[in-house]
Amino acid sequence: MNQETKNAQYLINGQTSSGLSVLDRGLSYGDGVFRTLLVKAGLPHHWSLQYQKLAEDCQALNISCPSEDVLLQDIKALFDDPLDAVAKIIVTRGESARGYGYPADISANRIVIKSQIPAYPAINQTHGVSLHLCQLKLGLQPKLAGVKHLNRLENVLARAEWNDVKIADGLLLDTDGNVIECTMSNVFARFGKDLITPSLDECGVAGTARALIIKNAAQLNLSVKVESMSLDKLMQADEMIICNSLLGAWQVVNLNGQQWAKQKLDAQLREMLLN
Amino acid sequence: MNQETKNAQYLINGQTSSGLSVLDRGLSYGDGVFRTLLVKAGLPHHWSLQYQKLAEDCQALNISCPSEDVLLQDIKALFDDPLDAVAKIIVTRGESARGYGYPADISANRIVIKSQIPAYPAINQTHGVSLHLCQLKLGLQPKLAGVKHLNRLENVLARAEWNDVKIADGLLLDTDGNVIECTMSNVFARFGKDLITPSLDECGVAGTARALIIKNAAQLNLSVKVESMSLDKLMQADEMIICNSLLGAWQVVNLNGQQWAKQKLDAQLREMLLN
C-alpha cells in the first residue's frame, strides 16, 4: 500500500469504523453509486448539483439515498481543515445475504473518503493534452447509462491500455462506434459556436462538469447539442475538450495522429467549473 | 440485518479481520472476481474446476490469483465442522488510491465467506420450476463475457423484476435478442439427443455446473452444442434445464406462457453435479 492509501481518511455511515462489511453489496455486485468532488476550504464544490446527481443515480437503481444533511455532516467532520481536497462519496444498497435479491427494508451504506487533489501536470492547462484511443468499446446498457455506478470494470480495463504518463486520458467509443466519453472525463467537441457532447442514453457516465457546461455554455456565447457523434465527426471538430469535477477542463491537442492548435476555451471552462 | 447476515463467517486474506478497506477496488469499481461453491464435510466440491475457473477469470482481468494452497487453507480454517455449507470466494485486485489506474505491484485481496446452503423448495426438484422472462437485456461486452466478475448490476436489476416466490429464476436475453442465461444459473435446451447451451462470447457468466455438463453429457448419451440461440428456438426445445453449483439442475416447466411436462434429465444432472 502506498503513502496515499495509508493516509486516506474516511467515514462509514458517519463513523470512523475499521472497515466495510464483506457482505456489503457494493463489494459483492458493485451495487451502488458514487460521486467525486472538490472540497474547497471545507465546503463541497457545486454541492447542489452533486447531491442532485447522487440522488438521481440512487433512484435509477432504487437505492435509498442518504439525506443531504447527513452527507454534509460527514463532509464537515472529515474536511475539518482549510486545505482543498477531494471527497469521494459512495452509497451502496447495503448489506445482504448471498444472492442478487435483497429485502425491501435493506439499509443503504454511505462512505465518504477524503484524499488529496491530484497533482496534474501544469502543461495540461498551458499546452493541452494527448488522448489514447481505447481499443475497448463500451457495451450498451440503457438501464445503467448515465449513472455513476460501481460497475466500472470497463473503465479499469480501458485505463490499463496505456502506461505513458504523457497521455491524460483514453477516449472511449461504444460498440456501435459512437464517441461516448473518456475513462475519467466527459467530452465536448466545438464546431464554430456549437458545442456537441455525446448522448449518454446507451452507456457512459453523465458527469457534473458536463452538466455545468451544458447549463452555462450560453455565458460563453456557445450553444450545446447533446447527440450521437462518430469518431470521424469528432476528428473534424474545431477543438475538443475533456472535463470532470477535479481537472475542470483540458483541451485535447493530440488524438489518433491528429493535432489541434491550443486555444482558450479550456481556460474559460476551467474558470466556470473550478472557481 | 437479518439472521443470515449476522451469522456470516469470513476470512480476509486468511484473517478474521473486522472489515474490508474502503479503498479496496472490489468496492470502488467491482474490480474483482468470485466463485460460489458447495463445501461438503469440509471439502470444496469440484474444487479443481472451481479453482481453474477462478484462475482463468483472474487472468482475464490481469488480477494476481491466490494460490490453490492458500485458498484451501482458508477453506479448511473456515469450514471446520462436518455440515455442508456454501463458500463464496472473492478475489479483488487489491487496494489503491482513487483512480482507475493501479500500480504494477498491487496486491490482490482474497475473501472467503461461509454461509448456509439455501433452502430451495423441494418442489423445484419434483415438479420443475417456473422462470420469469426478464425485461432487462444483457449488454454486449466481449472483454468481460464469461467472467464471473463483480460487476453484477445487470443481475441485480433483473432479479428485482419479480417478487413471486414461485419463480425460481429469470431468463436473460442479450440486446440482440439471443438467450444467454438466467440471473443465477446457466441454461441448456434439449432437442432430442442434443443439448444446446448459449454461447457466452459476448456476455454472460460461464459457470462450473455448465462446464461439467458440457464435459460429461456423453455419459448420458447426449451431445452438447455451444451456440447462439433465439428465444423462439428455446421455446421449441423438448425440455429446458437451468443449472448452477448450488442447486445442481432444475427442469423449467413454465416460461412465458408455455409449459413442459416434467421429465427425468434434471435428476440425472443433479446426480452428476451434486454428488
TrEMBL record, chains A, B:
One of its GO terms (biological process) is 4-aminobenzoate biosynthetic process. GO terms for molecular function: 4-amino-4-deoxychorismate lyase activity; pyridoxal phosphate binding. Pfam families: Aminotran_4. Transmembrane segments: none annotated. NCBIfam families: pabC_Proteo, PRK06092.1. One of its GO terms (cellular component) is cytosol. Pathway: Cofactor biosynthesis; tetrahydrofolate biosynthesis; 4-aminobenzoate from chorismate: step 2/2. Its cofactor is pyridoxal 5'-phosphate. Belongs to the class-IV pyridoxal-phosphate-dependent aminotransferase family. This is aminodeoxychorismate lyase. InterPro entries: Aminodeoxychorismate_lyase_IV, Aminotrans_IV, Aminotransferase-like, BCAT-like_C, BCAT-like_N, Class-IV_PLP-Dep_Aminotrnsfr. Homodimer. Keywords: Folate biosynthesis, Lyase, Pyridoxal phosphate. Its EC number is 4.1.3.38. It catalyses: 4-amino-4-deoxychorismate = 4-aminobenzoate + pyruvate + H(+). It comes from Candidatus Methylopumilus turicensis.
